[in-house]
Write a structure and sequence with these properties.
Elements lengths: L14 H4 L2 H17 L5 H18 L3 H19 L2 H4 L4 E7 L2 E6 H26 L3 H10 L4 H31 L5 H32 L16 H23 L2
């Protein structure tokens, strides 16, 4: 499995790449917060947010097709969660349909809420993809640590990203071994085999974790994230924060004005 799943294009040299990780973390979270708090009826604001994130993606020189593919992977999960809202939201009926013995109605307000959730989720996903694609994961962890996020959370994220690929490779090897020894059998046997694989993977993961912990303690690990380059918050970062902050503040004022 590729080990550059998130930060595949983090070695670029664009303006976005050169920003301090703390700058990108703060502005991304601020952008998501403003998007989530925007009223459902303010579609011009969502268009402005899309123009903002699209401009930043173009400046970062991250392939647009890559960003779209990554963002569309998450959309089905959002649809699965929000698909029932148009049928249960009260309001003016937009249509009524007979499904077997049930009559279901769709309301205009429900459709608006559904589309609003999709728009907010997609814009948030785009900003997160931009953040992870332009920042090395180790630098991202260092930025979280410098922002005084709980150290235990930073350590969990670090270990998760570092060893998830090891576990996936282990699963693929176990699957290959199972397929090479598979002589057929019923569904019950297949289920039993998968259960044994899950139990074996849990035991191997636990044992690997014990070995990694012992090796880290033997080498004096103190829980801090270390990188070869020390991020520095400079004038470029300050200017970026100010410009993006003014744009988001303008969007908030416009939203309040039209409420």
């Amino acid at each position: 499995m590729k080990h550059s799943f998130l930060d595949q294009y983090s070695e670029g040299n664009s303006l976005i790449h050169r920003l301090d990780p703390r700058t990108k973390l703060i502005t991304t979270l601020a952008f998501i917060l403003v998007v989530v708090l925007t009223p459902a009826s303010q579609w011009p604001a969502f268009a402005l947010y899309f123009v903002m994130v699209a401009t930043l993606i173009i400046i970062s020189r991250v392939p647009i097709l890559y960003v779209l593919k990554r963002s569309l992977v998450i959309i089905p999960f959002v649809v699965l969660i929000a698909i029932f809202i148009p049928f249960f939201k009260e309001g003016e009926v937009a249509g009524s349909y007979n499904i077997w013995f049930w009559e279901v109605t769709v309301t205009h307000s429900g459709i608006q809420v559904f589309l609003n959730i999709l728009a907010k989720a997609w814009l948030s996903i785009l900003s997160l993809i931009l953040l992870t694609a332009t920042t090395r994961f180790s630098h991202l962890l260092k930025g979280m640590e410098q922002l005084r996020l709980p150290r235990i959370m930073v350590m969990i994220l670090s270990f998760m990203y570092r060893y998830i690929f090891v576990l996936v490779d282990e699963v693929m090897r176990m699957k290959q071994a199972r397929d090479s020894r598979n002589l057929g059998g019923g569904r019950l046997r297949q289920i039993r085999t998968v259960g044994n694989m899950i139990g074996t993977l849990f035991i191997r993961s636990y044992e690997r974790g014990e070995r990694v912990y012992a090796a880290m303690m033997a080498r004096g690990f103190d829980g801090q994230t270390r990188t070869l380059e020390k991020p520095v918050f400079g004038q470029r970062d300050l200017l970026f924060v100010v410009i993006l902050g003014l744009v988001l503040a303008s969007a908030i004022v416009l939203n309040l004005w039209y409420l």
